[in-house]
Model the fold of this input.
Amino acid sequence: MAAESPTAAGMQAGGRRDGFWLLVLWIVLSVIGCLLVALVLGPHLPPGRQSSSAASQQTDFTVLGTIATPVVLGVLLYLGWALIFWRQKSGDETDAAPIHGNTRISAIWIVSTSVVVLALAVYGTIELITPAGAGAGQGPQPIWKPAGTTTSSLTSWTPGTSNILQVQVIGQQWAFTYRYPQFGGFETTQLMLPVGEPVQFNVTSLDVIHSFWAYTLGVKADANPGLNNVAYTTPQHTGYFQVRCSELCGIWHGSMYDTGDVMPVAAFLKWTQTTRVQLADVTKLLPPYAASYDPSTINNLGAVNVKLGLVGAGGGYYNPADPEQP
Amino acid sequence: MSLPARAATLVVAFLAVVAGVVFVAFEFIGAQPSVENYTPYASGGQVNVTMMTAAQTTVTNKPDWVTYFIKNPSTGNFDHTTYFAVPPNTRVNMTIEGYDGCTPLRNPLWGKVSGTLGNVEDVSFFNGKTYTPSAPLTTFDTYANCSVQHTFAIPGIGLNVPIASVTTYDENSNLCGTSPCTAANQDADSPHTVVKFSFTTPKTAGTYRWQCFIPCGLGYLDGNGGPMGTPGYMMGEMEVNA
Done:
């Protein structure tokens, strides 16, 4: 008859109390690990703190990482302990101890994991709501808007007021362009933002689905043709940031990136004035500002275009016959 | 079957699969058109590059695809490629012979010339008989006018040049029908434009993709498939050599 396994009794033959030492080690390692994650690793986690949404995301990652640390350490500690102390000794061919159910351990496990998961769900929901959608696209009718902001004017903007700065992000194969309706509606390949001012990104596309990802700003919103996808953030620090397309959109998807700049408010206003003048001749050719626009049918085409049978922009725009093979 | 025979069969089958993958990767996915190397032809900090647009590609098995050609600096012939190499920090004097017809821009922003020296382009219109040069142009209204056929844009250096088109219905109805549109094909006298502009290459070596921003892949979803998504037609690369 096989002898009862010492692990089943919670005590090794030599008198070592596995459960006690596992618990002690786990607590000590968890305290150290949580402090390291929260205080040392946390401040360096992406996406940084260049904007309000980025900062909230970094805080969330830090919180989640800190909570996950004891779980990870517990699993690894138990695994290591088992490998070192509970491994089969050479020449020992006795059977392992039979495993029986343990209602108390099961209950503790179910309750504790449920509490952790539900607490994280509540925390995640709050963290999605309070930073105005956490920088994610909320669709054409956003639920969570930055506190104290309004959309009182789409044709003018004054810093420090509740009227939020509007920036339209237009994806097209393979570049992003940006339109500023409150400054005469000019469109440019440059993305400039004022520091400390809430921004509403209106993200759309002229062709396929793209995704506007200003990752150090913590902003990510899909660019869908014919749809306005709204995302919010407030830049908190000046400096450059990278914009990338994060939706596979064609052969040059990997090259669809550019660099934006968060600048002081005065510099931003000066830039808008300069750019508005520089682009005046092409701005008047742009269609009136709208949440999205469909160039498949252009009503004001010139006589030669019409005579040539052209009704809209080249290539068709969601032509029902597409895709057809030549 | 013996164990060695089974092992040998497994190895052979594995190698066959690997060879198939490598063949597909290099033959189809990684295939790249030839590069027209203009670097040896640079002189005095400048180099002249000549390209051509055509409404078709009769030299390939995709005859109804629009395309660019690049003049081979050695032979003077227009080769079917969209890859060219130039030296760094050099003024590129670009000439693009535009043999395609007009189309409205999906995004009128691309009707603005930018990134060229002076932010202008010079255009000469050929109606089949005579050339008519215009004053330097900065902006094209493609909705009101039949004025642009394609664009030549290098987003990485902020370059965007609308390639002007011939402007009348008759000219657009009598475009070159065999590409490249040369005297040898008896198409050089077709109505076309000659667009000239200059820009400076970056100071550091690198590869800069260029593309047309008019979705001219007719018949494909949003016009962005086919020639718009295939190297050698409406997009390519500018290699800046060290």
